[in-house]
Amino acid sequence: MNATLIARPAPPRAAFGQMVRNEARLAWRQPTGIIAGIGISVGLLIMFGEVSLFRQSSGRLGGLSTFDVYIPILIAFAIGIIALTYLPGPLVSYREQGVLRRLSTTPVPASWVLAAQMAVQVCLMAIAVFLLLLVSMVFFGATAPKNPGGLILALALSIAALFTIGLAIAAVAHTASAARGIMAATFYPLLFFAGLWYPIPLMPGVIQGISHVTPLGAAVQAMQYSMDVSFPPVAPLLVLAAYALVFGYLGKRFFQWE
Amino acid sequence: MRARTMTSAREPVQAAGRPAVEIAHLRKTYGTLVAVDDVSFSVAEGEIFGILGPNGAGKTTTVECAVGLRSPDSGTIRLMGLDPQTDRDQIHEIVGVQLQESAFPAKLRVGEILEEYRSFYRQPADVTDLVEAFGLAGKRGAYYRSLSGGQRQRLSVALALIGGPKIAVLDEMTTGLDPQARRDAWDLIESVRDRGVTIVLVTHFMEEAERLCDRVALIDNGRIVALDAPARLAAQARGGKSVRFLPSAPFDDRLLEKLPGVTRVEHEGQHVIVTGTGELVNAVILALHAAGLEARDVQLDASSLEDAFMWLTGTHLHQEGESQS
Asked: B246 and B136 in one domain?
């Protein structure tokens, strides 16, 4: 065997592209997150849209319809499920199986695989958000977001908060199954406070207060405002930024690559 | 430690040519456990160097320090003159590693894994050549999880070579392979060396070390107890050879013990094993004949690396899965 040496420019960019491609293939071949994050959220949106009662504006919801209220909730559900299904579990199993260790003997840092995973997840989230907005506007007469810039900022901060929470879970979990367990135990309460079962404006005062300081609750609040009113208030944006900072620090401090 | 340390183990043996690997006074502890204690050796370019010892002897820790996965407590390590701690980027470019316990994502295909790893290096090897050499050409489209143990092992070694390394560090390369696959892997390693790659081979298979390695370091309890060419180690260690035979009748051991050159007389069932130097067979047979006895079923054993290891450390190496002759 005669190894052919092919001169290449700097490896990094090509290597990152290859890693993203393989992480995308893995996400596609283990489609739980895609089915749940995109399939279920869009499915629920269509079901809610078909109930005509849900599309009447209600005084209790500040003049919005139940359907309007559910659009940001389903967006939060979609990005939450994609981040928390694809980040902590697979990352911890990479550590368990020695994938990260093997990578750290190559010119490419092991952290690149995490960046590649995040890149794939952000793409999936973008698809989910795009489909949810498109379906609600085209088929159910929802209005276009009033403040797209505010919505994008709210989304970016929400994604940052979710990623860092996922990283912190990966830092404390020693096995992939432990990571999935912690993920489930975290995610369902977060969904409750996001209003998936009971919209935030209808929650009793105390619960509503708690909801406003949970990551998905703050995310829904900021997205709702930018979709229906204007640039979101500072409070939910600060809550999201605080989560991203605190969990980002914890994740960076305690996550072990080996 | 029962080891009788050989003189050559103390100072690093100066290998001919420019050393590809130089390790001096390496020490690594985990809490109170001393995993590696004052290990020194150097490996010449193009050499196949074996690190041999029982499980837990410190072999893996030694190579993990060498490739920069662990930082040593003290001592110096140079690979092609580079320090794995401070010159990480360059080290990773020129050193290919096969780790003992590393898997790849179950749902990636062999070809996809190879392409990804290939993209990490500036001057990678040709994937088609590699998969052909490693018998994986028909498996490029197969998921990693569908590979047999032997195929995974071969992929792992192929990935260690995909960056076109100057040094390949292979940790327990043939563990879990069947005897035929193991021999194929040995041929492959020799062909890799023939292309000028220096190979550091960690193993606990004596046969592998004897067959492949130019020199071997025997490690026990974190220390090098001997370092030399396998054949010379074996000869030095036993101080000779042994004769095994079935006597026609029982006799007093002293009959043979008093012979010049005989160092030991042992019994193994009906058989007698005499260890010593010089014209051992003749001396034993003549002495028995003089006493009116006959030796049947006579076998002469030159000592092996296995004997050397036992003699030096008092420990058996694990021989798991080693059922072939």
From this structure: no
CATH number at residue B269: 3.30.70.100
Task: Return d(Cα B309, Cα B206) in angstroms, integer.
Answer: 9
Residues of B in contact with A18 (CB under 8 A): 115-116, 119
Query: Using one digit for the tens of pLDDT, what is the confidence trace for A208-255?
Result: 999 999 999 999 999 999 999 889 999 999 999 999 999 999 998 998
Q: Which of A2, A99, A107 sits opposite B89 (nearest CB)?
A: A107
How do residues B218-277 score in pLDDT, each as one tens digit?
898 899 988 988 877 776 655 567 788 899 888 888 888 888 878 888 888 888 888 877
Continuous segment of H or E residues that includes residue B299: strand B295-302
Q: Is B249 found in the same domain as B228?
A: no
Token code pair at residue B81: 């003159």
Any domain includes B316: no
Q: Are residues B176 and B281 in the same domain?
A: no
Q: Does B266 lie in the same domain as B182?
A: no
Judged by CB atoms closer than 8 Å, whether chains meet at A105 and B99 is answered as: yes
B67 to chain A, any CB pair closer than 8 A? The answer is yes
Q: Cβ separation of A107 and B107 shorter than 8 Å?
A: no
**Do residues B208 and B261 both lie within one domain?**
no
- Within a domain: B2: no
- Do B216 and B157 belong together in one domain? yes
Q: Give the Å distances, CA to CA, from B197 to B47, B191, B202.
A: 8, 9, 16
DSSP, collapsed to helix, strand or coil, labels residue B74 as strand
pLDDT tens sequence across A147-191 = 999 999 999 999 999 999 999 999 999 899 999 999 989 999 999
Helix axes A234-254, A148-172, angle to 10 degrees: 30
Contact state of B120 with A107 under an 8 Å Cβ cutoff: yes
- Nearest-5° angle of CA A31, CA A36, CA A42? 120
Residue B230 and residue B244 in one domain? no
Nearest to A3 among B117, B120, B195 (CB): B195
Q: What are phi and psi of B53, to 5 degrees?
A: 175, 165
- Domain of residue B294 covers 240-302
CA angle A14, A20, A76 (to 5 degrees): 145
Final residue of a domain: which of B234, B262, B290? B234
B115 in contact with A at a CB cutoff of 8 Å? yes
Q: What is the pLDDT of residues A43-65, one digit of tens each?
A: 999 998 888 778 888 877 777 88
- Per the structure, the count of domains in chain B is 2
Do A105 and B121 make contact, defined as CB atoms within 8 angstroms?
no
Return the CATH number at B118. 3.40.50.300
Over chain B (325 residues), the average pLDDT of each successive run of 10 is 39 58 93 91 94 87 92 93 88 91 89 95 89 90 92 91 94 82 86 90 86 91 88 68 85 86 84 80 86 84 69 58 36
